[in-house]
Amino acid sequence: MRNTLLLLLLLAAAVATISGCKQSSKAPSGGNVTSTPAAKQVTIAFLPKSKGNAYFVSCAKGAQKAADELGDKLIVDGPTDPDPARQNEIVENWITLGVDVIAASCENKEGISTALRKAEARGIKVVTYDADALPDARSFFVNQATPQGIGCALMDEAARLCESNGEFAVITGSLTAENQTEWRKFVEERRAAAYPNMKCVAVEACDDLKDKAQSETTALLSTYPDLKLILSTTSLGVPGAAEAIKQAGKTGAVKNIGLGLPDENKRYVHDGVTQSVILWKTADLGYLTIYAADALARGTLKAGDKTFKAGSLGEFEIQGDNIMLGKPFTFNQDNIDQFDF
Amino acid sequence: MNTDKHGFKKNLLRHETVLFAVLVVEWIFFDAIGHNFGTYDNTCDILRHSCEIGLLALAMTPVILTGGIDLSVGSLLGLCAILFGKFWRDAGMPIPVAAACTIGVGALAGGLNASLIAWLRLPPLIVTLGTFSLFRGLAEAITHGVDTFTDFPASFLFLGQERWFGIPAQALVFIAAVIFFWLLVHRTTFGRSFRAIGFSPEGAHYAGIPVGRRVAMVYVLAGIVSAIAAIIYTARLGQAKADAGTGYELFAITAVVLGGTSIFGGVGSVHGTLLGVAAIAVLHSGIAHALLPGEMAGMLTGVLLILALAGSALPKMISGLRARKSAPRLAKQIP
């Protein structure tokens, strides 16, 4: 036992010596001998909310494409377990690793902001994408969609399919969730302003359950025989409503649209049950994020800029410190097979 | 002289020594392939990141020594974290009072485990599986799963994020806990009684050890330590949420078992646990600094566990074989 204790002490001493001798150096492979700072390779660390999630996998694909174009080094790592501290640990590891920029999608806004602020204090630039941190913990947020953009896109698509008149119903995740309420508000605002002949007859909550969305839709279909369209503001609502419409034999007669991921709706879109699924191009989100991160590190993107040019995607508008990805994208029968998330 | 030599050889083959060697190899390996791995900054980060799991593993060691298990520590960490937030934000208590109350809650929660296990004689696995769900469920119910506590004062966040004379502040708490548990397990009659209970509760009872009280003690201690870990966790993240510490119980148990403590009780050491925690923490940090995919950490922890256990079982097996070989000769000599 004494000997083991002695060994422990030795270890501590060894660690202290090794650590003491070494000074942190900057950027793992950014040390390419180049004289102009602009030509220096930038090391960008890209943090998804969770690593295996198909949504973030496709974000990372776009990110990699951008990094290849820019000649930057991209590190992608994210939590594989539900521990909320994991994102912080990953960021802190990147700080000691000495990356140049961190691009993060934040699971816990307040929690991760502590780590991101620490990164900024060490001279590492921070951008967020998909889910923002606290504003003081990052320079820019790459905003994939505003509530207004989402609300308008949904309502415009509904009106297009219904030729701007008739009854429709809304399936929402829950009646209290903040983002859902916001989106519904803009759907209604857009309807009142642009499509007065359309009427929203009901708003039902599906508690973010596919089964509940299905049973609610079945009830809606029998209660309102003139219903022309179901609009879901939650991703699980779209396939749930589709299943109900299909089983009621109303495929095509009652249109079905909503926010969602292409993959879980492909089948229904091909069967003609679901007409459109609305979201943003996740690969573009990753692509734009990396371009912004790179520009921030090189000093070409600064606070106060009004526009930003990202490679092959062209110009993007900047509102305050939000870089706007722009209008949501509509997935339909013609294009849905090109997407894989 | 002869006995000294024997003692040295025995120590060389001890599980802790094998694990220590593994740890040194790990360190040298990651220092070679990783970037900025062996720096002082990163050493501090490793300490900071492993503090909560380290505390839980320390408290888990006596629990497992008595032949028990506590699956509820991670959930209790979550419950204590949000209660700490509640005490501070909603009840308006100053941080030290809120911390003291949180530790009180930890002791009570540990007491619940203790009374069910020690006095109702229910199996620890079942009891703590129940409280594992109960504590997490309470945490989620109190916050409705969405409420989070944040904006703690900087003086409190110091505990989780800053250094005090060059040492991460929470490491000092951890070192104090290491000393406490080492003395408890290795230098007091309590420690000996934990092992005795782990070997045979009936035997310990007939030897005059108050088995119920001693078993209760280790679970209450685990509760208290979970609460302390919760406070450090909150300070490190600057946020308390109901899902804090999810899965930490398994990390802690892994570290204890890796450290050579028998899951059946009776055998084990605090310094072994410490080495177990260090081996896992170094692995996690090393993988990140070598830019290897993070999911390798889980896989390599498994490999490490198997290697370390096999490594220390091998010499025993060899000496067992030798003993069997020499046995017939001995038998011949006797008549």
Question: Which SSEs are present, and which pair or pack?
Answer:
The complex is a heterodimer of chains A (341) and B (335).
Chain A: H1 2-21, E1 43-47, H2 54-70, E2 73-76, H3 86-97, E3 101-104, H4 109-121, E4 125-129, E5 140-143, H5 147-162, E6 166-172, H6 178-194, E7 198-205, H7 210-223, E8 227-232, H8 237-247, E9 255-259, H9 266-271, E10 276-279, H10 282-298, E11 307-310, E12 314-319, E13 322-324, E14 329-331
Parallel strand pairs in A: 1-2, 1-3, 3-4, 4-5, 5-13, 6-7, 6-8, 8-9, 9-10
Antiparallel strand pairs in A: 10-14, 11-12, 12-13
Helix pairs in contact in A: 2-10, 3-4, 5-6, 7-8
Chain B: H1 2-12, H2 15-33, H3 40-65, H4 73-90, H5 95-119, H6 124-143, H7 154-161, E1 163-164, E2 167-168, H8 169-187, H9 189-199, H10 201-206, H11 211-237, H12 248-258, H13 270-289, H14 296-333
Keywords:
heterodimer, A: 341 residues, Rossmann fold, 2 domains, eight-stranded mixed beta sheet, six-stranded mixed beta sheet, 10 helices, 42% helix, B: 335 residues, mainly alpha, ABC transporter involved in vitamin B12 uptake, BtuC, 14 helices, 77% helix, disordered C terminus
Structure report:
Chain A is of the alpha/beta class and 341 residues long. Chain A contains 10 helices and 14 strands. Chain A has an 8-stranded mixed β-sheet, sandwiched between helices. Chain A has a 6-stranded mixed β-sheet with strand order 7-6-8-9-10-14, with helices on both faces. In chain A, β6, α6 and β7 form a beta-alpha-beta unit. Chain B has a two-stranded antiparallel ribbon with strand order 1-2. In chain B, β1 and β2 form a beta hairpin. In chain B, α3 crosses α12 and α7 packs across α11. At the A-B interface, α1, α3 and α4 of A face α1, α2, α3, α11 and α13 of B.
Radius of gyration of chain B: 22 Å
Count of the separate structural domains of chain A: 2
Report the principal-axis shape of chain B: globular
Strand order of the largest sheet of chain B: 1-2
The count of helical stretches of chain A stands at 10
Class derived from helix and strand content of chain A: alpha/beta
CATH architecture of the largest domain in chain A: 3-Layer(aba) Sandwich
- Shape category of chain A: elongated
Straight-line N-to-C gap of chain A: 56 Å
The topology string of helices and strands of chain B comes to HHHHHHHEEHHHHHHH
Instruction: Determine the number of helices of chain B (DSSP H or I, runs of at least 4 residues).
Output: 14
The main β sheet of chain B shows up as: 2 strands, antiparallel
Extract low-pLDDT stretches of chain B. Answer: 1-5, 331-335
The average pLDDT value of chain B, as a whole number, equals 90
The percentage helix of chain B is over 70%
Quaternary state of this entry equals heterodimer
The CATH architecture of chain B can be named as: Orthogonal Bundle
SS content category of chain B: mainly alpha
Average pLDDT over all residues of chain A: 87
Number of extended strands of chain B: 2
**Biggest β-sheet of chain A, characterized?**
8 strands, mixed
